[in-house]
Write a structure and sequence with these properties.
The structure is a homodimer of 314-residue chains. By secondary structure, chain A is an alpha/beta fold. Chain A has 13 helices and ten strands. The radius of gyration of chain A is 18 Å and the shape is globular.
Chain lengths: 314, 314
Amino acid sequence: MKLPDFEDIIVAHQRIGRFVHFTPVLTSTTINLLTGSEIFFKCENLQKAGAFKFRGACNAIFSLTDEQSSRGVGTHSSGNHGAALALAASLKGIQAHIVMPSNSPAIKKRAVAGYGGIITYCEPTLQSRELTLQKIADKTGIEIVHPYNNSTVIAGQGTAAKELLETVPYLDLVMCPVGGGGLLSGTALSVKALSVSCRIIAAEPLGADDACRSFKAGYIIPSLHPKTIADGLLTSLGEINFAIISKNVDDIITVSEESIIASMRLVWERMKLIIEPSSAVPLAVLLENKGAFQNLRIGIILSGGNIDLNNLPF
Amino acid sequence: MKLPDFEDIIVAHQRIGRFVHFTPVLTSTTINLLTGSEIFFKCENLQKAGAFKFRGACNAIFSLTDEQSSRGVGTHSSGNHGAALALAASLKGIQAHIVMPSNSPAIKKRAVAGYGGIITYCEPTLQSRELTLQKIADKTGIEIVHPYNNSTVIAGQGTAAKELLETVPYLDLVMCPVGGGGLLSGTALSVKALSVSCRIIAAEPLGADDACRSFKAGYIIPSLHPKTIADGLLTSLGEINFAIISKNVDDIITVSEESIIASMRLVWERMKLIIEPSSAVPLAVLLENKGAFQNLRIGIILSGGNIDLNNLPF
């Protein structure tokens, strides 16, 4: 297995730079005082389609050959990856088939449809999702774009941390949430390439701590019955992701649901940014472990802002 | 009466540049499609203390002589100006007395207190507010900083539009909300100085349309019984503000409460930005008058993001 490296991230950035937002890095004096460190928030919630996922999807779409493009792409997704892939495909003028569980939130269905994605509904099980997608692929020859266990997608996600370190030099630590590991593996590659001393620590909900346990065990432990409000972090680590994470990440730290919700509300109230629960997990780590993170320059990737305003946890 | 001019805004920007955020300008493909124009949102909701008010407050505070500084400053405010003045004063290490109606929202009281403001509560009437403040001034000799009818404050507010036009050239139109007219008069001075062709149109809730009626009548008509969710826009125009607005603003257009709430929700959902209702009024004008604003490059100042998350209109 040839793992992606920082060269792939440089190429990805050149490829997708004209399509993605170079998102701002924002700070909050109040949150700096609360944590005892200087925090630089990379606002991927302000990315197109509302999440970092658009970077990886764009890199996958604009890496296709003409022949692949003519057949279109597909994925199964209940969340941000489906919308991101649909939008990226529409920018290239090609078809995107998105398999969605029938019980997906209406707002996610609308987003995918609004970007021109062709939705096929399935039962809300992984088996049904994979089977339905495979049937479409067999019939149409579409290229299946995995949401995270895909080197091209990982290289795309790595461009967020690349921009962060190009905007704010001399960081001591970069943090991001971990679910399937797409963002974390891309981030780790960028951070380790661009700094000799910057650490990278991932944050994970205690109720979905498969990445933390896998990281400590040295092999992938699947996520069996995850339970967390951070709906973007329910998935198990991918193999490519795990290989990169094992080698490049310094630690994975878990936090409680209460801390995630409190951190999310803090960012809403003090930074005026709408972030989804997954985005709040790194800040929750800092607030739960204050003593361990004092007087540091810390970059945090706010991963996304897609949340149902009619169903807030506060 | 010597009115402030663009020279004052240039000086203000040099004075406050190190204290204020140079806020980002963000765009939304979806909102561009909905309106038929290209819109550039200047994000003053991401300004320190959550609103453009911090610019004017900073300029007022850092324009004081040492002798004035030693006595401190004061204002009466139920909203953003009080918090902004308290924060600016704390940065200079001087005292700020903020007179607040006793029924002010708890979140506003916490903000002022959190920035070190010395709060004096009063009855929720304009008379009680002015009287209470005057008593403090008589006793302490504080400099009273009016929230908008003040040339130094106006010059500070004008720096937001200056940054907007420096970030995005060739705008056809700049829009902002109007309440007391501090933001609008500063914005008008910057826009007219930096572009020969860019129009400036203010947006106002129909339920608080005193600025629109004053603009058309040619004299100030006080706001008597304003009723709108846009709580930043309840005040009457100031005299200095009106003089600048009469001369430099192209039009003032009113909108319904329903449009304000729908526009606010649109920005929350699609741009992931928390804006208060006042900030949504210009976009509401565009959505209510689609035919009149096609194929333009439009700058909109999102004035602030201070809103009680426990009391949302949707």
